[in-house]
Write a structure and sequence with these properties.
The complex is a heterodimer of chains A (455) and B (115). Chain A is mostly helical and 455 residues long. Chain A contains 18 helices and no strands. In chain A, α7 runs parallel beside α10 and α14 packs parallel to α16. The longest helix of chain A has 33 residues. Chain A is globular, with a radius of gyration of 27 Å. The N and C termini of chain A lie far apart (67 Å). Chain B is α+β, with helices and mostly antiparallel strands. Helix content of chain B is 55%, strand content 14%. Chain B has a three-stranded antiparallel β-sheet. In chain B, β2 and β3 form a beta hairpin. The longest helix of chain B has 25 residues. Classes of the chains: A mainly alpha (455), B alpha+beta (115). Chains A and B meet through α2 and α4 of A and α3 and β3 of B.
Chain lengths: 455, 115
């Protein structure tokens, strides 16, 4: 590309950066620029001079884009409805619908089979994750056109986990029968089934990153994707919940018996289809949530920071002799996860080179408070284990909290070390440490059940 | 002589419609015509023409279609519509009134209806 062509491209990019200037408007303006340049060159100027004068005649970029914004104010609101008639996008819509349909068919077939094989639905519980997430991974394989040799390791990993989980003799063969007859299902089965979702999410992220299992550069992208996907999924779920509620309300006087059937068909279908729809929305509408995520973290980081500090002060004032039962522990773990999520998201939205701002200080305070709380939780947990011994649930809780404490402590320490690389290092540590969480999830699925004799 | 900014802005719409009433055209050609007709006295910032054209398109006074320039590049052509003709007639009536009034005071050198 010649120098002038490069400068034209640069000028065009500056115009197109404004949301009010559509791609076709940029085409039109570029055509105008080239016409003007051609006339100027015909009158004896060289290309460079012609470019300079033509650009000047078109007007300062920000004045022109401001004028476009006045006429096309609607464009400043990013529209969720994709413009019709652009072939590529139509196809992406069709692909999304096709994959969502596949996911729905799979879950409904499985559901009907599970109803048939009652009360022996053990296989359903252990494989639940396999009925949902591989479709999402396959969607990204298709979307990114990942070559077969890159798909193979992902498929092999999925199959290994599937074989292992299905060969494990949980609770002596028929686990959930116990559940049906009033007993508890084996802890190891529920733990493995739950953590499978995390393991398979890593597969989804690998597919999202184009088949690269642990892409250094795209880790933050994977984090952003996870967060945005979660936001969309929650929004869709809320809407779906309202829809189901209203449907049952409308049906209750005329066909009260049909409500369960309707929910049985609609709820699982909606829940799995939404995984694909949310992924598609993240892909096609990146810019909306790009704006939303930093706003959400900016609002909630101070709020959670204040909440955590109050909690720390209260717990310290009340003394350390607090009994942490299972519900309280779960609550605390969710709180810690939210803090980690806020920190990660906050870091993902910030330019690492920018100097420290108030929000960074607040974030650091929140992390330190979270460390103190988590140490309290760990202390109580160790005490329980000392008294009652290890159970699968306690091991999982302990391991998870140890990982959390390590993550948060290192984050806090990095936050206190001054230097131009501070925020880049924090982000790198946080994203890198996600591997430890993934490894732990794999451990819970593959190693923990045999260790406890599938109890 | 450079015309006052507000006056140029007020003239912009009738000027563009009047040029398009003579036949289908595109942005750059419209600007050249404005330049030639006013002997260079009316100078627009080129980029400002396009939001104006898009506004007229939204109001249904002009119709746009993509074509090709002789060099084979994409080019957006504009054509006046019936509603545009009506709007132009209204603009013309107002401008004639304005020029006639001022002309009456100044011992007009601008015969009404000449343009």
């Amino acid at each position: 590309m010649s120098e002038v062509e490069a400068r034209i491209a640069q000028w065009r990019a500056a115009l197109a950066r404004s949301a009010a200037v559509a791609e076709t408007d940029a085409d039109e303006l570029e055509e105008h620029l080239r016409d003007r340049m051609a006339d100027l060159e015909a009158s004896g100027l060289d290309q460079d001079e012609a470019f300079l004068i033509a650009v000047k005649r078109l007007g300062a970029t920000d004045t022109v884009t401001a004028e476009f914004a006045r006429e096309h104010g609607d464009r400043l609101w990013k529209q969720l409805v994709l413009p019709p008639g652009l072939g590529g996008r139509d196809r992406s819509l069709l692909e999304m619908i096709a994959f969502a349909a596949v996911a729905v068919v799979i879950i409904q077939v499985v559901r009907l089979l599970a109803e048939q094989s009652m009360p022996n639905t053990d296989w359903f519980t252990r494989n639940l994750a396999f009925f949902v997430l591989p479709v999402l991974a396959a969607y990204f394989v298709r979307l990114r056109r990942i070559p077969l040799r890159a798909v193979l390791p992902l498929a092999v990993a999925t199959v290994v986990f599937a074989v292992a989980v299905n060969l494990f003799p949980f609770g002596g063969g028929n686990a959930t029968a116990g559940l049906i007859f009033g007993g508890d299902p084996p802890q190891t089965l529920l733990l493995a089934a739950g953590h499978l979702f995390l393991v398979l999410w890593v597969v989804v992220l690998a597919a999202y990153a184009g088949g690269n299992p642990w892409p250094a550069l795209r880790r933050m992208d994977a984090v952003r994707f996870t967060g945005e996907w979660a936001i969309y999924y929650v929004l869709i779920a809320l809407g779906g919940g309202v829809l189901l509620l209203l449907t049952s309300l409308v049906l209750s006087p005329v066909a009260p018996d049909a409500i369960d059937d309707v929910i049985g068909w609609v709820l699982p279908s909606g829940a799995v289809a939404a995984t694909i729809v949310a992924a598609w929305l993240v892909e096609s509408k990146k810019s909306i949530v790009e704006n939303l995520a930093p706003v959400l973290t900016a609002i909630f980081t101070p709020l959670f920071g204040a909440g955590l500090v109050v909690a720390v002060v209260t717990y310290l004032a009340a003394g350390f002799r607090i009994e942490f039962d299972r519900d309280l522990l779960t609550g605390f773990d969710v709180l810690m996860l939210v803090v980690v999520g806020l920190v990660l998201y906050g870091l993902s939205a910030r330019d690492p080179r920018r100097p420290t701002t108030a929000i960074d200080v607040i974030r650091l305070v929140a992390v330190v408070a979270a460390v103190v709380l988590d140490l309290l939780v760990l202390g109580s947990m160790l005490q329980r284990i000392g008294e009652f011994g290890f159970t699968p649930n306690r091991v999982v809780a302990l391991g998870f909290n140890v990982l959390l404490v390590i993550d948060l402590v290192v984050t806090a320490v990095l936050g206190f070390i001054r230097g131009p690389l501070r925020y880049g290092r924090m982000a790198a540590w946080q994203t890198g440490f996600l591997a430890a969480f993934a490894a732990w999830a794999a451990f819970v699925v593959l190693v923990l059940p045999p260790f406890f004799g599938f109890a | 002589m450079n015309l006052d900014k507000d006056l140029v802005a007020a003239m912009a719409t009738p000027l563009v419609l009047a040029i398009l009433a003579r036949g289908r055209s595109y942005g750059y050609a419209i600007l050249k015509q404005v330049h030639d007709l006013s002997a260079g006295d009316i100078a627009w910032t080129d980029g400002m023409l396009y939001p104006l054209l898009h506004r007229l398109e939204r109001l249904g006074q002009v119709e746009a279609s993509w074509g090709e320039s002789p060099e084979g590049r994409k080019r957006k052509y504009y054509e006046i519509t019936a509603s545009g003709e009506t709007a132009l007639a209204e603009h013309r009536r107002q401008w004639v009134t304005a020029t006639r009034t001022l002309g009456g005071l100044w011992g007009s050198s601008i015969p009404a209806g000449a343009w």
